[in-house]
Amino acid sequence: xxxxxxxxxxxxxxxxxxxxxxxxxxxxxxxxxxxxxxxxxxxxxxxxxxxxxxxxxxxxxxxxxxxxxxxxxxxxxxxxxxxxxxxxxxxxxxxxxxxxxxxxxxxxxxxxxxxxxxxxxxxxxxxxxxxxxxxxxxxxxxxxxxxxxxxxxxxxxxxxxxxxxxxxxxxxxxxxxxxxxxxxxxxxxxxxxxxxxxxxxxxxxxxxxxxxxxxxxxxxxxxxxxxxxxxxxxxxxx
Length: 238
Known about the structure:
The protein is mainly beta. It has one domain. Helices cover 10% and strands 36% of the residues. Strands 7, 8, 9, 11 and 12 form a five-stranded antiparallel sheet that branches. A four-stranded antiparallel sheet has the order 1-5-6-10, with no helix packed on it. It has a three-stranded antiparallel sheet with strand order 2-4-3. Strand 5 and strand 6 (120-128) form a beta hairpin. The radius of gyration is 17 Å and the shape is globular. It starts with a helix and ends with a helix. Residues 1-22 have low confidence and may be disordered.
């Protein structure tokens, strides 16, 4: 799958309900998915191909079934995101075990509803099969298109810019509900900028205010969704 096909697929999955545009109230229902479902490399949890080697790898789409029962690890230090580069899977230096398998990680699901009216936004989401009792943060992100090299996103905590409204915790069964209101409304995807939302699990139990923390090592993006373009919203609302 090339990058153009990837963006088309993401946009199709992101739009799951009609919505209105411009000055009218706008409502968007969305589904959150993992990287492998989107034909990308899994980013922030890693598997050890050879036990005791000290080397760990990101899982590719083709490797998914092979490693579902494998324990996953964090990295020894931060690792840059690069989800569409098939050569960025590793090896990386093994950090701490995360205490669950790849299959358990990929079992996470989420649905949300976003509404914008008079440039004031409200967002509510529920998640299942997250890391039990796991500490999470919620983010909006922006990515230039075509993708920059090196790959990189601009990440903003949902709600207050100090990150105080982005934090939530899953219960003992991995269920979590998240609600926030803020203004102004989120920017949708444009011709040169992709917009989306993501949740990140913090394996150290800590959060980092207005920044996500060290990806791979302490911060692990589990699920995300992309926001559509205005013209796609208009088509969906007809």
